[in-house]
Design brief:
Its EC number is 5.4.2.2. Residues 14-152, 185-287, 296-408 form the Alpha-D-phosphohexomutase alpha/beta/alpha domain. The chain has 544 residues and is an alpha/beta fold. The protein has three domains: 4-181, Alpha-D-Glucose-1,6-Bisphosphate, Chain A, domain 3 (3-Layer(aba) Sandwich), CATH 3.40.120.10; 185-408, Alpha-D-Glucose-1,6-Bisphosphate, subunit A, domain 3 (Alpha-D-Glucose-1,6-Bisphosphate, Chain A, domain 3), CATH 3.40.120.10; 410-543, 2-Layer Sandwich (TATA-Binding Protein). The strands form six sheets. Strands 2-6-5-3-4-9-8 form a seven-stranded mixed β-sheet, sandwiched between helices. A seven-stranded antiparallel β-sheet has the order 20-21-24-25-26-19-27. Strands 11-10-12-13-14 form a five-stranded mixed β-sheet.
């Protein structure tokens, strides 16, 4: 079949952010926009010629069209084999699982994660490497550089591939295999956790749970694993049908966007367990009756209890957390006598540590938790980990949480997001903080004394690469911290994130309301950054 060479010119701004290139659907729909980016991936990674590639996405609006474009470009550029999820679907952790299982040279994931979907909403694309994880910065920088010089892309003139028909077909010289997007992933989960114990918990007659798939990708995965394989009651999975616009919702599993589920956990007859995942299935939220587990606490609890679960019985080697994630995990690492790494925001920074066997568990405050089983954060994995823990410890979520705080102390934690802020104002605010940094150590702010203040820079302990300007960190003598950074996943304006943490060793104070406990620190953070004067905002848009 004849390869067609189409002349093109570069588009501005195809720099991948925290997790790939995310833009409005309308931007992606411009003729040549997606093609340029995909060709840049193919030009940057010569190993893809003659190699194999996994392709799939979270099913949001434009997923199917984008996949057809990618299949044609990949075939025209000599990719030998393409593994595609039926219907064009794959959760992000399932792509990682399939890349690793079938030893492909990488994968292309189509998603804008927790951002809304639909014709006027968001779309995204990212490349995952042969280890199954998001491409490191060296690769995304090279892809971006290529987007700035690209002058042609290669494609084929072929009818669309039937994405709904499992089996093998060909496109030019390329073999395309349409596979069940769920099976390999579900098998992996079954190998890691004690399904008998969870099955028993579900059938004990006194355990009520719901999993909210938020009309996003985890619906089919959760139905297969929770209802079919583990015997949870039909209907345990709510909002389980993936929709192109997520039913008009915001598929972000947090207290603000999963309110229907949160409400079900309230009251004396609230659910024993509630969990949710996001657009592409890599995030998780964990709830107990009248109780919310912060992602930072969740990571620490999983680390402290991992030895109780089959897949982690031999113990964990080390932990990593992103810089803004609370230091609760460090306390567990200290107790276990293992390393705890602090990395920049972005799952890609965990890849080298996982590959080198330096860590087993990793997590981020942004509702991401995972382990060395794949190279992405994994929403359903975290849910199954918690379910296995509940089954083994025979305690409620609240009991496990309270017990953890009693043992290790409590790192109160909250994140305040100011969304849709004027970009210049947001950058001005960060510059202002940067200028303050040298004079902050030793200064008294409210009742706190600054012990260090910096713009976080990270040197990867495995390959020595350096990532600078990763967020402003202000640490206090009490152990409290304030962190400021601008989100790298938004598609319009800027989102200012302010992360606040405060350590409380006294169990008598562990059940205070988080926002009350954090108030003094919140006021320091607002004043220091001049948030109101610089952004015009008196209150954050989202508090988690
Ligand atoms: C992505 C990254 C995460 C990161 C999160 C938030 O998550 O994979 O590593 O923590 O964005 O990033 P930001 O604070 O820059 O918005 P996801 O679920 O969107 O892929």
């Amino acid at each position: 079949m004849e390869t067609i060479r189409i002349a093109t010119t570069p588009f501005e701004g195809q720099r991948p952010g925290t997790s790939g290139l995310r833009k409005k659907v309308k931007v992606f729909q411009q003729p040549g926009y997606l093609e340029n980016f995909v060709q840049s991936i193919l030009d940057t990674l010569p190993e893809l010629r003659g190699g194999s590639l996994v392709v799939g996405g979270d099913g949001r609006y434009f997923n199917r069209e984008a996949i057809q474009v990618i299949l044609r470009l990949a075939a025209a550029n000599g990719v030998r084999r393409l593994i595609v999820g039926r219907g064009g679907l794959f959760s992000t952790p399932a792509v990682s699982c399939v890349i690793r299982k079938y030893k492909t040279q990488g994968g292309i994931v189509l998603s804008a994660s927790h951002n809304p979907g639909g014709p006027d909403e968001d779309f995204g694309i990212k490349f995952n490497s042969a280890n199954g994880g998001p491409a490191p910065e060296s690769v995304t920088d090279a892809i971006f550089a290529r987007t700035k010089t690209i002058d042609r892309y290669l494609t084929l003139d072929t009818p669309p591939v039937d994405l709904d028909q499992p089996g093998v077909c060909t496109l030019g010289e390329t073999e395309i295999e349409i596979i069940d997007p769920v099976r390999d992933y579900a098998d992996l989960m079954e190998a890691l956790f004690d399904f008998d114990a969870i099955h028993h918990l579900f059938n004990s007659g006194h355990f009520q749970m719901r999993f909210d798939a938020m009309h996003a990708i985890t619906g089919p995965y959760a139905i297969e694993i929770l209802e079919n394989r583990l015997g949870a009651a039909p209907g345990t999975v709510m909002n389980g049908v993936p929709l192109e616009d997520f039913g008009g919702g915001h598929p972000d599993p947090n207290l603000a966007h999963a309110q229907e589920l949160v409400a079900l956990t309230h009251g004396s007859d609230g659910l024993d367990f509630g969990a949710a995942s996001d657009g592409d299935g890599d995030r998780n939220m964990i709830l107990g009756r009248n109780c919310f587990v912060t992602p930072s606490d969740s990571l620490a609890i999983l680390a402290a209890n991992a030895h109780l679960l089959p897949g982690y019985r031999q113990g964990i080697r080390g932990i990593a957390r992103s810089m803004p994630t609370s230091q609760a995990a460090n306390r567990v690492a200290d107790f276990l006598g293992i390393e705890c790494f602090e990395t920049p925001t972005g799952w890609k920074f965990f890849g080298n540590l996982l590959d080198a066997g330096r860590i087993t568990l990793c997590g981020e405050e942004s509702f991401g938790t995972g382990s060395d089983h794949v190279r992405e954060k994994d929403g359903l994995w975290a849910v199954l980990f918690w379910l296995n823990l509940l089954a083994v410890r025979q305690q409620s979520v609240a009991e496990i949480l309270t017990d953890h705080w009693r043992r290790f102390g409590r790192n109160f934690y909250t994140r305040h997001d100011y969304e849709g802020v004027d970009l210049e104002a947001a950058e001005g605010l960060v510059d202002h903080l940067r200028r303050l940094l040298p004079d902050l150590p030793g200064r008294q702010l409210g009742a706190e004394t600054v012990s260090y203040a910096d713009d976080f820079a990270y040197t990867d302990p495995i390959d020595g690469s350096v990532s600078e300007r990763q967020g402003i960190r202000i640490g206090f003598a009490s152990g409290a911290r304030i962190v400021y950074r601008l989100s790298g996943t938004g598609t319009s304006g800027a989102t200012l994130r302010v992360y606040l943490e405060y350590f409380e060793p006294n169990p008598a104070l562990h059940h205070r309301d988080t926002q009350d406990a954090m108030r003094p620190l919140v006021l320091i953070a607002r004043e220091l950054a001049q948030i109101e004067t610089r952004t015009g905002r008196t209150e954050p848009d989202v508090v988690t």
